[in-house]
Amino acid sequence: MAYGDHVERRSGGIVRSLISWVMFFVTMFVMVWVIQNFIVRAYVIPSGSMESTIEINDHVWSEKVSYYFRDIEYGDIVTFDDPEVAGRTLIKRVIATEGQTVDLIDGYVYVDGVQLDEPYTKGQLSEPLDTAANVTVSYPYTVPEGCIWVMGDNRTHSADSRYFGPVSVSSVSGRAAIIYWPIENIGVF
């Protein structure tokens, strides 16, 4: 074997190895992208709007698969695009879906005339909020087609549909399924 053959074979092996590593990283990137955009995404909760169901700094997985097979329902905890801040994701509980009427009477939430049983609010009253600019919400409020009404479980510290109005179903990125960190808060919704 001549010296040139050895160098040629060695450089061919390096090129093949380099291509293999590039393909590995491209494949991994594509797999992560597919998983995050179509199956599940992890979020760290920055605020107390869902306390005590979800605490500040809890790590939550929001899954997308169930909404391929069913509609969003009352009680689901959903992640969605913040109506006010582009690129930010919020997490809240679904209180009503399109066509349902929400009312706030004496601090209690009524949907279609029935007072909700909401043990997750720990007795906090649900009062109307001053709305965001260019948003009008008056009660009773009927949720428009293609929208949902969401509220944080920590009713006294949550900017939610009372503030920014209904949320478009198309902006929902998933259903919160599991708190996976910290260990003491691990749980399924």
From TrEMBL:
PROSITE patterns reported in the protein's UniProt record: SPASE_I_3
InterPro entries: LexA/Signal_pep-like_sf, Pept_S26A_signal_pept_1, Pept_S26A_signal_pept_1_CS, Peptidase_S26
Segments traversing the membrane: 18-40
Molecular function as annotated in GO: serine-type endopeptidase activity; signal peptidase activity
Catalytic site positions: S49, K92
Gene3D superfamilies for this protein: Umud Fragment, subunit A
Keyword Transmembrane: yes
Native organism taxonomy: Bacteria, Bacillati, Actinomycetota, Coriobacteriia, Eggerthellales
CDD domains xref list: S26_SPase_I
Catalysed reaction equations from the record: Cleavage of hydrophobic, N-terminal signal or leader sequences from secreted and periplasmic proteins
Name this polypeptide is given: Signal peptidase I
Pfam families recorded: Peptidase_S26
Keyword rRNA processing: no
GO CC, any one term: plasma membrane
Native source species: Slackia heliotrinireducens (strain ATCC 29202 / DSM 20476 / NCTC 11029 / RHS 1) (Peptococcus heliotrinreducens)
Biological-process GO terms, alphabetical: signal peptide processing
Every Peptidase S26 domain range: 19-181
Record EC number: 3.4.21.89
